[in-house]
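Changelog-adjacent note: as of this version, every example in the card shows the full chain rather than a window. The one below runs 133 residues end to end.
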Amino acid sequence: MMDISPNKVGFVIVRARELSVKVGRWDRSGDDADADTIYESRRSDATGSELKSFIKNLNEDEKAALVAIMWIGRETFTADDYDEAFETARQEASAPTENYLLGIPLLADYLEDGLESLGVDTSELEDELYRKL
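Full-length structure tokens:
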């Protein structure tokens, strides 16, 4: 049994994907985003801060579960070792979880793979979340 709702993990996956496709700005004129520049990283883009705040506001068990799921997706642990991964995440947390996770380049992929390994169908989960956003 996971210590975090699959919907919360799905939200992190969706936002992390949005963040990972951002590229540096190619022009320096103004900061108005339009449809042609939506994937450019801009000061006014709240995706990163929203995701960081979301993770920061999770309770300690949810943060540890999120890290454990990422580790399972990264194949540091197996799905059968979820409890061990969870306890390790709780005991070894030395930096803010949001900083740790957002520093992992393939975060969305690892979380998705971790959920899949734990038996959660992420395709339906992500479709539902994209409709809500």
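Structural remarks: The CA atoms of residues 52 and 98 lie 5 Å apart.
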